[in-house]
Amino acid sequence: MKPLASPMMARLDAALAASRHPIDAACVRAERAGLLARQGKLDEANAELQTLRRDFAERPEAVVTVWICIVEAWIEQYSGRLSVGRDKMRRAQALSAAARLKPLQALSAAWLAHLGYMQDDFDDMAKYLTLALQLAEPDHHAARARASLVAASGYHWANRLDLAQPWYTRAREHAVADADETLLSIVTFMMACHRSNHASRASIFGSVDTAEARRARAWLDASFNFDQWIGSAPQNSFLCSLRAQLYSADGQHAQALALYETHLAEAERQGLAHMRAVHLADQAWCRFHTGDANGARTDANAAAALIDPGMYMEDLAIACGRLDQVFAALGDVDASLRHRQMAREHWATHQTMMQSMIDLLDRALATAAH
After folding, report:
1. CA 100 to CA 211: how far, in whole Å?
2. Best label site of 54, 70, 87, 188, fewest CB within 10 Å?
3. Per-residue pLDDT at 222
4. What is residue 192's predicted lDDT score, i.e. its pLDDT?
């Protein structure tokens, strides 16, 4: 499939050609480097950033400096260094506020809301989401698209798709208005991720949800195909790990195991190392159901050794819940009961966090509307 020529890149190239002032041109070049970073083309983004730093080393300009901070934050984030990226985005926020650069303050606030969401800092997420929506003009599509995606993702994560849908719609509308195909890709990807996670949760803490697993697979296909179409740097193994979880949740254990064995190591290099306990526990479940009890025990023991209180609470609950099932199937009653108790505790905490997310978003969005 021949990739689609990037509409946003074409818009930025046209703006660059039309720029008559060096500072205006530098801002467009920075935004262009940021798009490259968000597309996963990190080497190209870094090269452009080095040129910008050199050009303004002698006579810094506040607006260019803030743009450089924002692009640096994106490069760190898309390299898997979320904490470093968040620190750089905080600097962009502080500098833009001090220089009264309202559009960049809105943009950096929207991304800080996103990074707060990514790191389970829901209070910070809500604070910056409110700020972004209060500062962003109605036609500041980049800031409003990102803020809308944060609201949609938060509600969807908390299992309130009804509340998420209007915000997904707004995110898409602003992305289309901004010709931002990369944001459209992320909207599709987030929908796929949340549906996959809900199907996986149901297979452990509820009952198998075949319909949700089917919908999740359709969204995963859509995400992969859209990324191929726009020529975004693909994370095939990342998507395959999600597909493996779906096969497992739907009882198709052989298909799931084949995907885990082929793609798990690469998926971890693409940013899923923090989910190793979850994946190994699920792989153990699949090995047991395909007749490999010894392999299942080996994977289960490895997963159990990786259980760490510093993990995301949802991941802790899912890993322990799956290990309860695996050890029960293997006849290890003590290990099963131990992980069952941990799973119940972590799941109860996760449910409290979901309600907290809903409450925080309700208040943040109501405040931003006034």
Report:
1. 50
2. 54
3. 75
4. 87
Backbone phi, then psi, for 58, in 5-degree steps?
-80, -40
Distance CA(236)–CA(294), nearest Å, equals: 29
8 Å CB contact between 199 and 235: no
Q: What is the pLDDT of residue 198?
A: 87
User: Residue 327, Cβ neighbours under 10 Å: how many?
Assistant: 26
| Distance (Å, whole) CA 358 – CA 364 | 10
The rounded distance, in Å, linking the Cα atoms of 131 and 114 is 12
**CA pair distance 301, 282, nearest whole angstrom:** 12
DSSP letter for each residue of 120-160: T-HHHHHHHHHHHHHHS-TT-HHHHHHHHHHHHHHHHHTT-
Q: Which residue has the tokens 């966090």?
A: 353
Average confidence (pLDDT) per 10 residues, the chain, 370 residues: 72 93 95 92 94 91 96 93 95 97 98 96 97 97 98 96 96 95 89 87 77 76 68 66 90 95 86 90 98 98 95 94 98 97 96 96 90
Residues contacting residue 365 through CB under 8 Å, at least 6 positions apart = 129, 130, 133, 151
103: left (phi over 0), alpha (psi -120 to 50) or beta: alpha
Q: Taking the C-alpha atoms of 131, 134, 137 and 140 in order, what is their torsion angle to the nearest 10 degrees?
A: 30
Q: What angle do CA 111, 124, 149 make, to 5 degrees?
A: 40
Q: Token pair of 27, please?
A: 């801002």
Pair of tokens at residue 240: 């395959």
Q: What pLDDT was estimated at residue 5? A: 67
Taking residue 348's Cβ as centre, other Cβ atoms within 10 Å add up to 12
pLDDT the model gives residue 284:
98
Question: Residue 285 corresponds to which tokens in the numbers above?
Answer: 């479940």
- pLDDT (0 to 100) of residue 4: 60
